[in-house]
Design brief:
By secondary structure, the protein is an alpha+beta fold. A two-stranded antiparallel sheet has the order 1-2. Strands 3-4 form a two-stranded antiparallel ribbon. The chain is globular and about 35 Å long.
Amino acid sequence: MRLKREGVIEMKIRIRQADKLFSEYLRKKIGSCEICGKKESIQVSHFYGRRHENTRFSEENCDILCYYHHQNFGENPATYVDWKKAKLGEKRFKLLMLSANQYKKKDDKLIILWLKKELKELT
């Protein structure tokens, strides 16, 4: 859905329950920004975004970042690529890229069951 506000067209993003649970799971599991260690305002950054369902719930595709570093990578994608390659290594980075570009049907019920189990084990 498109919304028009002050002459700007915005896209309204629907946050799936699976997205919420995955974010909660990763933030609890890792707990702080992977760059600076900050524990406040941490977010899940997806290297490959929403249209890549095959890597949507992949831990290798996601990084826990504070607000500042998440914004910085969004504004400087080449920096994010360099950091991600250093974090994963060349081989795992290429495998992530291949995986992101393969089709996968959404199966939120299965993802939600898996995440609820994982969250329970973290507590």
